[in-house]
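Marked as duplicate of an earlier ticket. Keeping the data here for the record.
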Amino acid sequence: MPENTKKEKSFFTKLHDKYRLVLMNDDTLEEKLSFRLTRFNVFVFFGTLVIFLVVATIYIIAFTPLKEYIPGYADFNTRKVLRELNLKADSLQSELQSKDLYIMNIRNIIEGRDIVDHIPDTLDSKDFFEISELERSPEDSLLRAQIESQGSYTEWTHEDMEVMETRGVSQFFFFPPIQGVISSHFNPSEGHYGIDIVSEKEEPIKATLDGTVIFAKWTLSTGYTIGIQHTNNLVSVYKHNSSLLKREGSHVKAGEVIAIIGDSGTLSTGTHLHFELWFDGTPINPLDYIAF
């Protein structure tokens, strides 16, 4: 028992034993600096230093931007950026659906179907086929090259188009797509939204106005069909052709050859052109504006 007490006193006594830390010049042995230390003071100093480093590290991680460089921590603005991206994605999706619906209604108009107010979940692709699925004869290729080499009727300047956009349909200068005899007139009550024009075989069909081809396909009911989007929400449609000379996305001029008259499609009863004009989604009588 006395020996243990002696050892314990010896240990605590050593904690307060004083030591001197001396810094001397190695060449001259001149004393430059000295410190008086005890074991207890050294323990307190290093303990305090460790606690300070721990507190400083926690503060840097919790309250400064440096934590962004630590794996597992997210950026301060990540949630804000993600929210803005989600809003932009929703806006783009809504805009894309509106454009898809607009294009679908244009195709429905061209194919003689009803206009819809929403995009169906599934689309029936059995009623039409791509043009690339049908083979072309050498004679057709020669005729196509000959027709496409013909010049357009006229070229309108950008200023002319801007003036036309501010006017009504009656102010458009329509070019007759073909010359011939009217065999069937405009009758929307019976579902006939255009006129039928009978002409000679292999007669070229021309664009009635400047515009962009938005539809150029073969359908079961209307055969080779081409639709052109013009300015001022005006669309022209040309049905029952024997072949098409323009692709979707092509820009055409008024009077430029776009197809060859034909007798394609189950609704055709002979060689003729079924021609339609649509203004703001409403069919109009081409005879009111064009002299055939």
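See parent ticket for discussion. The CA atoms of residues 160 and 166 lie 10 Å apart.
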